[in-house]
C-alpha cells in the first residue's frame, strides 16, 4: 500500500496482527502506540465461498473474537482511546430477501430474524455470513454494557459499498465482492447480454462511509449507537448511469427488467446525528471514476447519505465528471491519530 501511495509514508504506520482470534492479539499494538486516540475497526471481506459451511469456525469465531479482542485490548491497554467506530453490515438486519425487505422498515431497531442455531443447521455460507454479522455486533453491545469502557463505540450498518480502490489490483480475480458487482454490470453485454439481477438493492459510497466513521468519533450524539446508512439502488439503475459513458455504452447489456421491492431504510437518525451542514453534503451526480489498468468505471447520479466534509478528508464529488485515481488519506483536524 505504501509503495502505491508514497505520499502516505509520513502519516500511515502498519502494525501487523498475525491472528486476531488469539487472546490479546491487539495488546501489542496499543502497548507500542499508547498515544492512539481513536480506532476504526473496518469490515471483514465477504466470505461467501460455498465451501465455508462451518458457521462457528469460518464466521462466528473470526467476527466475534475480532470485535471482542479489539475492544478488550483497547480497554486494557489503550489508555488514551476516546472512541471506536466499527464497520458492521446491514446483513446484521436482513439477508436482502425480497419478502423480508418488503415487509418492514430496515432501521436501527431491527435485527436479522435468524440466529446461530439456524446458521449451524442450514450450512449456507451467505446465511452464516449474515448471522455472523449479527452475532459480532451483539458482542460489541454486550461488552459495552458489561465492561462500561471509558471510550464510546459507534457501529455502522451499510449496504453494498462501492467506490474507488486505493490498492493495486493485479487481476480481475482480485476484485472485492462489491467492486466485482460493478464490473459484472459493466461487462454484461459480453457475458450474457443482460445486466445481472440486483445482488442487494442498496449501496453507499466508500468515501461517505469513511467520513461518517470519522464524524462519529468526535460526535457525542453518536456514542454507543448503531446506524443504518445508505440509499436504495438497483443494478439496472447503475447500468443506466454506466451507459452515459460513451466508452461503456456498448459494453453494458440490456437491463434485466427484474423489478424487485424497493427497500425502506430507516436512516433518519443517522442524518440527524451525522449531517451538520447540508450545504457541505457530497453530491454524486455525474461522478466518473477511472482506475487503470482495469478500466473500471463507476458512475452514479443519486445522492447517498452524506456527512460534512472534514478538512483534509477525502475529496468531494461534483456534478461534473471527474477522473481520479489518487484518493487522499483521511486526517483528523486536531492532530490526534486515527
What this model shows, in words?
By secondary structure, this protein is α/β, with parallel strands linked by helices. It has a domain of 218 residues: Rossmann fold (3-Layer(aba) Sandwich). The protein has a 4-stranded parallel beta sheet with strand order 1-2-4-7, with helices on both faces. A 3-stranded mixed beta sheet has the order 5-6-8. The chain has a two-stranded parallel sheet with strand order 3-9. α2 links the parallel β1 and β2. The longest helix is centred in the N-terminal third of the chain and has 23 residues. It starts with 26 loop residues before the first helix and ends in a 38-residue tail after the last strand. The C terminus is likely disordered. Pfam families: Epimerase. GO terms for molecular function: oxidoreductase activity, acting on the CH-OH group of donors, NAD or NADP as acceptor. It comes from Penicillium bovifimosum.
Short description:
The protein is of the alpha/beta class and 338 residues long. The chain has helices at residues 27-32, 55-77, 98-101, 116-122, 125-147, 177-186, 188-191, 206-217, 235-242, 268-274; strands at 38-41, 83-87, 105-106, 152-158, 160-162, 202-205, 225-229, 231-232, 264-265, 287-291, 296-300. The chain starts with 26 loop residues before the first helix and ends in a 38-residue tail after the last strand.
Q: Enter the CATH topology name of the domain at 6-170 and 199-232 and 260-278.
A: Rossmann fold
Number of strands: 11
Q: Tell me the span between the first and last alpha carbons.
A: 17 Å
CATH domain class name of the domain at 6-170 and 199-232 and 260-278: Alpha Beta
Structural class: alpha/beta
Q: Return Rg in Å.
A: 20 Å
Instruction: Give the overall shape.
Output: globular
Mean pLDDT equals 78
Strand order of the largest sheet: 1-2-4-7
H-E string: HEHEHEHHEEHHEHEEHEHEE
Low-confidence stretches: 276-338
The CATH architecture of the domain at 6-170 and 199-232 and 260-278 comes to 3-Layer(aba) Sandwich
Number of helices: 10
Largest sheet: 4 strands, parallel
Domain NAD-dependent epimerase/dehydratase: 19-230
GO molecular function: oxidoreductase activity, acting on the CH-OH group of donors, NAD or NADP as acceptor
Family: Belongs to the NAD(P)-dependent epimerase/dehydratase family. Dihydroflavonol-4-reductase subfamily.
InterPro entries: Epimerase_deHydtase, NAD(P)-bd_dom_sf, NAD(P)_dehydrat-like
